[in-house]
Task: structure prediction
Amino acid sequence: MSVALHLLIMVIALAGWSWTSPVSEPEPRLISARLVSPEPRPSPVVDEQDQRDLEQERRQQEERERQQEEAERRRQQEQARQEAERQAQARQREEEQERQQAQARERAEQQAREQEAARQRAEAEAKERERQRAEEERRQQQEAERKAEEEKRRQEERRKQEEAERKRQEEVARQEAERKRQEAERRLREQQLEALADQSNREREAEARRQQEAAAARAREAQMLTESEKYQSLIRERLSQAWYPPSSATEDMTARLQITLLPTGELANVRLVSSSGNTAFDNSALGAVRSLTRYPVPSDRDTFERYFRQFTIEFNPQRLR
Amino acid sequence: MTHNAYRQGFPFATALTALVLFMLVAGSARAELLIRITEGADAALPIAVVPFAESGAMPAGDKVSSIVQADLTMSGEFRPLDPSKMLSLPSQRSEVYFRDWRLLGQRYVLVGQLNRTGERVEARYELFDVNREERILGETAGASANNVRTLAHHISDRVYEAITGDPGVFSTKLAYITLNRTGDETRYRLQVSDVDGKRARVRLESREPILSPAWSPDGKQLAYVSFETGKPVVFTHELATGERKKAADFPGLNSAPAWSPDGKSLLLTLSKDGNAEIYRLEIASGNLTRLTNHWAIDTEGVWDHTGRGIFYTSDRSGGPQIYHMERLGAEPKRITFGSRYNARARPDAKGEYVYYVHQRNRAFHIARINLKNGEESVITRTESDESPSVSPNGRMLIYATQQNGTSVLTVVSANGGAAYSLPAADGDVREPAWGPIVR
Result:
């Protein structure tokens, strides 16, 4: 350590010197580096309490010695330092030169290296780019394939969906139709039931009404019948007097005539509805019916309408002369 | 379950009840009043025979319309209106006012026109039904001027048929026997006339009795019994030529001839075998077949309407009664029971009635029996009636009866409704025979 320290100091002294003496001429290399300083002696180990005076004295001694040595050594050191400095300066210059050469070399090398590196880099980069491009292409192709696949899949999916949708809609429509049909059937059944119920009600009501009406009608009819019988016999009498059965008449001959009268008793129409098969007989009946200018008819309009508006006269001789 | 069934059945029962009710109500509502007329007027049918308009000179004598009126009157079925009561005298349709004729109570109106051209008279005539206001007949017919009676009878026939449905018989002939006594002269005459007794012509005259004239079916011959030979002999007599033949001149009685429907044979009553029996004589061959065989008198045989059986008179029951032998040789059946005397059967052409002389309370009438029900009814009111003869249409009957001490002919409608005496000829008129319709 101390050696390195001394050395350093010497270098610094030399350098300093060199720097102090502006002698520009570099020192010759004859006095190159020489170890100058002796080996440092180890310091005696003395107990501090016991040896203080002694130590004091001795330390003075030593101090003087040391100061001498020190002066000496400083002078030497100065010399060494100057020498070293000079050498160092030369070395420094050499070193600087070498350093600069090395630096230049280094730089060239560096440059070449850099060029190589750049080339390699460029190459690598090109390769990388190519790789990347290929990669990209492949990726794009894959992507396209994937997309196509995807598209196909989607289309299939869509088709399936559409099919499913269509089927679903069909099913819905079918179900709707079925529902409507069932609804219609249900409504029809309800209507039928309703109609049946209505009809039944109506029939019951109508029956009740009919029974009432029938009772009233029976009473009225009995009255009208009595009245009508009177006029029937009057008409029979008049027609008997007016009828001249022809000589060809036989007892099995029957002619039926339908008579239509006016309320005044006048004959509105007569129609032969059933011939006797004998023209003369039919004519005799027609003549008899038409010969009455006024038929005896009831004044009661209902009785007239009921019995005498239209009726049938049958001519059938029971006792021929 | 029963309850359920009842509930289910209820609507049906209701418906059924309703239906029945408805049918009752509707049925009674629809059941039209029916009035049955079973009897006609007792009176004859009123008809107006309007005097025909004439153009050209008409032969003297009865007018055509008058003859027609008389014919229709004689039938007993018509009651022609007296022309003096007519409100108008139409001769064609445009002049006929139905209301007027209706007011007069007429059922039919006959109008017509006569046109004489040369020796011919032509009639245009129309018959109207007053109540129906319809023309039921419209024709033309002609005859020679001296034959207007023939024309008139033809019109009568047409009118009669148009109204009654039966053929008229006014153009047929009558045959009958007259008896005249002038001093101690007795004349029997066989005469043939129109049905109204007009245009009578003597076909045979004899001092001896002539009996039982009978018409051949074609109306060309008569068969009769003549005593001119001193005994009854059956003759056939061709009218057109006057040719006579002895048809039956057997020992004993030859009497009561009657022609068969085919005109080829005669039924006769002969006593050649000792007792009066009925025989059939085939005219052409003279073959004789005995049809009855009985100890009693069988006589007055006549064919029934079928032409297969005969009616005849027999006193096998103790008095004369009428029997029917339905087939020749069959067992005869007695058909008259109403009195002790029923004789001289004359069936009509339809097989409905048989007319005969019927004694009741010592009087003789003409009666008829309804073959369907056996009902016998007297149809004449006169007494001493004899010799009935039915018109070919079955609607009229002619017979002889006594009037004021003389024998006359009377025509009645077959139902006895009306009587019409033929104009009295001189002396007695007997044994009428109504001739057939000759087409």
Q: What stands out?
A: Chain A touches chain B through 54 residues (CB under 8 Å). Residues 144 and 172 of chain A are 39 Å apart (CA to CA).
